[in-house]
């Protein structure tokens, strides 16, 4: 499931594109069907939470994987590894490298000067280099994230963590696992939770997973053994043996957030994660 660590790794894979010229592009989304980026230079590629951005000349290319999206890299002229009908964007750069974005949830292109107006709603990125660095006039990303989460004390911690306006990068798997490891039920209110401890643990786990070939929370990379509660409804808790429960909880509330308004599944252990209050 694409979350902040997945998009960070994708951005790292795409760094060799920086400085290359686009030889061919094809947008397979109606609103951009006539756009051609040929001749433009890729100046920067960077992630922010679950979002990926390319600075192409004076334009920003914005993509979001949502649930099923992914990028594949091929040599020009070789057969694609996934069906062509799932391609939403094809970009060929100098050197014969061809990138294909399959099942992308968002594909947008807009002037770079509009970046803040379009994406300023995003909260601090957990994986940003300046997460712990405060500026002279501005708080660190961590401080700002804690302020945003804490500003709604009656909200559930599960909703607050998933809201990309608060902090960018957490998806359903991280939410489920961090809440379990913190002994917190996702439906507990923010006011009843040590928010700083939960956020700090999330950052620690996400950064630890950056160098792991398989995302794991248990330390076991075997298929089906990487999580404590996520996707394990009805199976015994690895700590106490109780059956893992499954329920739903609301998603984000920002209109700009791709997950806004969606109820999302939550997993928890009824013994290890009692609802506070």
From TrEMBL:
Q: Which domain of life is it from?
A: Bacteria
Which Gene3D superfamilies does the entry mention? 1.10.8.50, MutM-like, N-terminal (3.20.190.10)
> What InterPro entries would the database entry show?
FPG_cat, FPG_N, H2TH_FPG, Nei2_N, Ribosomal_uS13-like_H2TH, Znf_DNA_glyclase/AP_lyase
Q: What lineage does UniProt assign to this protein's organism?
A: Bacteria, Bacillati, Actinomycetota, Actinomycetes, Propionibacteriales
Q: Which protein family is it in?
A: Belongs to the FPG family.
Under Pfam families, the record lists: Fapy_DNA_glyco (PF01149), H2TH (PF06831)
Indicate what this protein is called per its UniProt record. DNA-(apurinic or apyrimidinic site) lyase
Mention one GO biological process in which this protein takes part, according to its record: base-excision repair
**What sort of enzyme, by top EC class, is this?**
lyase
**Which residue windows are coiled coil?**
none
Question: Which PANTHER family does the UniProt record give?
Answer: ENDONUCLEASE 8 (PTHR42697)
Source organism per entry reads Tessaracoccus bendigoensis DSM 12906
Give EC number(s), comma-separated. 4.2.99.18
- Molecular function (GO) terms listed? class I DNA-(apurinic or apyrimidinic site) endonuclease activity; damaged DNA binding; oxidized pyrimidine nucleobase lesion DNA N-glycosylase activity; zinc ion binding
Keywords of the record, alphabetical order, are: DNA damage, DNA repair, DNA-binding, Endonuclease, Glycosidase, Hydrolase, Lyase, Metal-binding, Multifunctional enzyme, Nuclease, Zinc, Zinc-finger
List each copy of the FPG-type domain by range: 228-274
């Amino acid at each position: 499931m694409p979350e902040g660590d997945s998009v960070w790794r994708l951005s790292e894979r795409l760094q060799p594109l920086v400085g290359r010229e686009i030889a061919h592009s094809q947008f397979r989304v109606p609103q951009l069907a006539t756009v051609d980026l040929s001749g433009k230079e890729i100046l920067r590629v960077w992630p922010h939470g679950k979002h990926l951005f390319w600075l192409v000349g004076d334009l920003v290319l914005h993509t979001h994987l949502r649930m099923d999206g992914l990028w594949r890299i091929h040599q020009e002229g070789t057969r694609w590894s996934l069906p062509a009908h799932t391609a939403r964007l094809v970009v060929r750069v100098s050197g014969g490298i061809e990138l294909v974005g399959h099942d992308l949830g968002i594909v947008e292109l807009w002037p770079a000067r509009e970046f803040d107006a379009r994406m300023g709603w995003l909260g601090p990125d957990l994986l940003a280099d300046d997460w712990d660095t405060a500026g002279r006039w501005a708080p660190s990303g961590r401080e700002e994230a804690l302020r945003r989460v804490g500003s709604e004390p009656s909200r559930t911690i599960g909703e607050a963590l998933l809201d990309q306006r608060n902090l960018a990068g957490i998806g359903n798997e991280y939410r489920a696992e961090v809440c379990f490891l913190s002994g917190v039920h996702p439906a507990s209110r923010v006011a009843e939770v040590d928010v700083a401890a939960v956020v700090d643990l999330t950052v620690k786990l996400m950064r630890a997973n950056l160098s792991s070939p398989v995302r794991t929370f248990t330390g076991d990379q075997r298929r089906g053994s990487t999580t404590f509660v996520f996707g394990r409804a009805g199976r015994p808790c690895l700590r106490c043996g109780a059956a893992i429960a499954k329920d739903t909880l609301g998603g984000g509330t920002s209109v700009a957030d791709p997950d806004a308004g969606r109820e999302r599944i939550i997993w928890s252990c009824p013994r290890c994660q009692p609802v506070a209050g």
